[in-house]
Design a protein that fits this description.
With about 400 residues, the protein is an alpha+beta fold. Helices cover about 45% and strands about 15% of the residues. The protein has helices spanning about 35-50, 55-70, 80-95, 105-120, 165-180, 180-185, 195-205, 210-225, 245-250, 255-265, 315-335, 340-345, 350-370, 380-390, 395-400, and strands spanning about 15-20, 20-25, 30, 55, 100, 125, 135-140, 145-150, 150-155, 190-195, 230-235, 290-295, 300-305. The strands form 4 sheets. A 5-stranded mixed sheet has the order 9-8-7-10-11. A hairpin with a 3-residue loop joins strand 7 and strand 8. The radius of gyration is 30 Å and the shape is elongated. This is Transposon Tf2-6 poly. It comes from Paramuricea clavata.
Length: about 400
């Protein structure tokens, strides 16, 4: 064993300087030395003043300095990824020439300014408190789900969100899970159980250089945690064990569908989608189903109204469903066609034709209400999604073509 006197502390001390960091055993914190802070700020200010014609080597040097301070800057890892992405892009263009010039992006400049403004007050804790709460989250291509003890939350993706990669959706699901249980987890150490290793890595590493979209969500997650004094740890759970969160991400209590059906009971067709749409209904309080109460001498009896109960009491279920679908189709046609045109269209539908297409018309109506798409004029991706769902339900090509 070789002892290095210059690197050793021979007398007891509660604060020691080692490798450019100040370690304090009273506050149990670590921070960057003042000399190192000033040296780094000099490089940062020079880069901010000349972001257009700076060499790739100089940017790489700045990134190296920033990364070297991360043990003493608690949230520093959030604020160098865009610089790294700028450097990688510039190296691809220059074919690996570090002496070639490059331009720092606006996002990169924001990161540089953050360091200039925060490095003086930044520090990090030597010990992290134990985990207080565990949340399970999951995402599917349809929606997201989260479970905290006996409480659960979830919602459907908006049309724009559902087009993203599953890695992005898993991170977004984790973000919504934290928002859903915000009042419960404030000021605590939260452990997120996620069945996606990419999402786990992005959260634990405070960002990623591989995907701007994933890094953006990762930054939003941590900024939310900073605002509510939450420390976050992510861990992987096999998908087969993440059952409850997975179920919430695939089964929804559609607020839009319920409200549209309530409008239909009052005379409006759910196909017009005049009701407001909640992209993430589980983030707000859920209203119970509409009920009808009748009083009698023996007490009060309640029952939930059937959304298909639009005809007389003696109508058969098939007649009720047919009336519901055909009336909605007529209301939709009224949006863009003249009354005479609609009469001609309806007269061409024989009873046998209505019966033949009744089942699929019901499925299409249900699909439109769940996806909030136009009953008569959907866009192409929505129509293809509907046909794909029919094909997955074991319908043949000939059935789909008809």
């Amino acid at each position: 064993l070789v002892i290095h006197p210059d690197k050793s502390v021979t007398s007891p001390s509660q604060e020691v300087i080692i490798l450019g960091f100040v370690i304090n055993s009273i506050t149990m914190t670590i921070r960057v030395t003042n000399a190192k802070k000033e040296r780094i700020k000099t490089f940062l200010i020079a880069a901010i003043e000349n972001p257009i014609d700076i060499s790739i080597r100089q940017v790489a040097k700045i990134i190296g300095y920033l990364v070297s301070t991360l043990p003493g800057v608690q949230y520093g890892a959030l604020y160098y990824r865009y610089l790294e992405m700028d450097k990688v892009s510039a190296l691809k263009i220059s074919k690996g020439n570090f002496d070639a010039p490059m331009t720092i992006s606006k996002d990169g400049l924001v990161e540089l300014r953050w360091w200039v403004n925060h490095i003086d007050e930044s520090f990090n804790y030597l010990m992290i408190p134990p985990i207080d709460i565990t949340i399970y989250s999951d995402a599917s291509l349809q929606g997201w789900g989260a479970v905290l003890g006996d409480t659960s939350s979830g919602g459907r993706w908006s049309p724009d969100e559902c087009t993203n990669h599953i890695n992005y959706l898993e991170l977004l699901a984790a973000f919504f899970a934290l928002k859903s249980f915000c009042t419960t987890i404030q000021g605590k150490h939260v452990k997120l159980m996620i069945d996606n290793t990419t999402a786990v890595a992005v959260i634990n590493n405070m960002g990623s250089c591989h995907s701007r979209a994933c890094h953006s969500v990762g930054c939003q997650i941590w900024q939310f945690c900073v605002e509510y004094n939450i420390w976050l740890t992510a861990a992987h759970i096999p998908g087969a064990k993440n059952v409850l969160a997975d179920k919430k991400s695939r089964h929804f209590q559609s607020q839009t569908l319920k409200q549209c059906r309530e409008e239909n009971n009052s005379g409006a067709c759910p196909g017009n989608f005049s009701c407001p749409r909640l992209a993430h209904p589980a983030l707000v309080s859920t209203v119970g189903p509409a009920s009808c109460s009748t009083s009698s001498g023996s007490g009060t009896q309640s029952h939930t109204a059937d959304p298909l109960s639009l005809s007389e009491n003696n109508s058969s279920p098939l007649q009720k469903a047919e009336t519901f679908s055909m009336s909605c189709l007529r209301q939709q046609l009224l949006r863009g066609y003249s009354l005479r045109s609609i009469e001609i269209i309806e007269s061409s539908w024989r009873d046998s034709t209505k019966s033949q297409y009744q089942v699929h018309l019901q499925k299409w109506l249900q699909f439109c209400m769940e996806r909030d798409c136009d009953f008569i004029s959907p866009n192409l991706p929505q129509a293809l999604d509907f046909l794909s769902s029919l094909f997955d339900s074991a319908l043949s090509y000939s059935s789909l073509n008809s």
